[in-house]
Amino acid sequence: MDIAGILGGLKDKVLDAAHFELLKNAYQLQEQNIDQLKSNNEAHKERVNLLHEKIEHLEKERDELAAEAGRLRQELTAVQPAADDGGAVSDEAAAVLVVYATKDATTLDDNVILQAVEFGNIELEAAISELVARDVLRLGSIAMGGAARYSLTDQGTQLLAAQYKRIREEENRKDERK
Question: How far apart are CA 27 and CA 119, in angstroms?
Fold first, then answer.
């Protein structure tokens, strides 16, 4: 039995008509509020379910992207030397590697490299230090004139070979397009 029925039974016995109508209206409003809250609750449940589905979809997409990022990271490390920050070598360091490639040498004195690049001693030292830290170059010896002799490591040789292979492949693609 609903509250309005109970109140109806009490009308004129315990409650006068004015108080009865006030209580009846209050309980009817309360029932409407309860119905509205139930409706809102259902809507929120639906929204939560949709959000759970979206979360599952995004987690799956995140896992796929993480797998692809790992694959790309492996490809990158096969072409670039390892670095603490995972980034590519600086422009100056790349220019030093180009000197080794153009001279077709695995060992060069720092003064020979300095003559071939378009930057000064400080930039050259920084570039060489970067390549030594990345295990691309190593200090071989110091010549009588004070020139330091740097040699490509196995990793440096592989890096240059991979870069040349990529360049040749790009040139072949360009030739095929013509």
Answer: 87
Whole-model pTM: value is: 0.46
For the four alpha carbons of 121, 123, 127 and 129, in that order, the dihedral sign comes to positive
Tell me the mean pLDDT in the region 144-173: 80
Amino acid at the residue 152: L
**CA 165/CA 178 separation, integer angstroms:** 20
Q: Which residues pair with 109 in a beta bridge?
A: 149
The DSSP string of 30-88 is HHHHHHHHHHHHHHHHHHHHHHHHHHHHHHHHHHHHHHHHHHHHHHHHHHS---SS--P
CB contact at 8 A, 25 and 4: no
Q: Return the percent helix, strand and coil in the chain, to nearest 5.
A: 70, 10, 20
- Between the CA of residue 12 and those of 2, 35, 66, what are the distances in Å? 18, 29, 75
Tally the C-alpha atoms within 13 A of residue 96's C-alpha that lie toward its C-beta.
29
* pLDDT digits 0-9 by tens, 57-116: 999 999 998 888 887 777 666 555 444 444 577 888 888 888 888 888 888 888 889 888
